[in-house]
Specification:
This protein has 224 residues and is mostly helical. The protein has one domain. Helices cover 83% and strands 0% of the residues. Helix 3 packs antiparallel against helix 4, helix 4 packs across helix 6 and helix 4 runs parallel beside helix 7. The longest helix is centred in the C-terminal third of the chain and has 40 residues. The radius of gyration is 19 Å and the shape is globular. About 4% of the residues have low confidence.
Length: 224
């Protein structure tokens, strides 16, 4: 199962880097895939270090949740170490979803002024994300520390959270595009892509958890 975890992580990385990152550009009002400037603009985007932060968050979150759920050798360790790591990963992804949702709402309300007021540089953005990370991490840890199915619950909450975030981001994106805002679609397109990325992320651990439950159910029969 560890090998399947590696395969799913690599496939998810290809989806994020090969599909979700480029799709942000036309959503934000940039050139489409059939434009001669599309690929040069995508290469330029890949040179922005800020872009790699959310990419690293979703890829690391996928890997952590997958390997925590498939590697049964960790059973001998203390449960608190498992809960701490899973809480860090899940709250990190929830913080990203929350930031993306709030950014979409802010862009819908303030329009083009939103980026100038609330996204003036990377420092305040990272500061808000770190604060959201802590705010999500504390209640998640307190709620999950006595649970035996932390990964299952985290994946279920992430799937529901991503759907809710998309229900916010998509209408906001339609609103800013209809107003012909210039920079506001950047925030809403980030919200849409983030929601899709976390939604797809949730399916990897879900599939392996179901497969693992089926294998565990077959194990007693084979031992007879």
């Amino acid at each position: 199962m560890r090998r399947w975890g590696i395969v799913i992580t690599l496939v998810y990385a290809l989806i994020v880097l090969g599909f979700l990152v480029p799709v942000t550009l036309p959503l934000a009002g940039g050139p489409g895939p059939f434009s001669p400037d599309f690929y040069s603009t995508v290469r330029e985007m890949c040179g922005w270090w800020e872009m790699w932060i959310p990419v690293a968050v979703v890829l690391s979150g996928q890997a952590i949740l997958l390997f925590l759920s498939v590697d049964t050798s960790f059973k001998r360790l203390k449960p608190r170490s498992h809960i701490a790591v899973s809480c860090i990963a899940a709250s990190m992804l929830f913080a990203l979803l929350t930031f993306a949702g709030l950014s979409s709402v802010g862009a819908a309300v303030y329009g083009d002024k939103f980026l100038d007021i609330y996204w003036p540089s990377a420092a305040p953005v990272l500061g808000v994300c770190a604060l959201l990370w802590v705010l999500w991490g504390i209640p998640f840890y307190l709620y999950s520390r006595k649970s035996v199915n932390v990964i299952t619950r985290a994946v279920s909450w992430l799937l529901k959270g991503s759907v809710l975030e998309l229900l916010v981001a998509v209408p906001c994106h339609i609103l800013v595009r209809r107003r012909d805002d210039c920079s506001a679609p950047i925030a809403t397109s980030f919200g849409i892509v983030t929601g899709i990325a976390v939604m797809l992320l949730s399916f990897g651990p879900s599939v392996l958890l179901l497969y693992k439950k089926r294998m565990d159910a077959y194990a007693p029969r084979g031992s007879k």
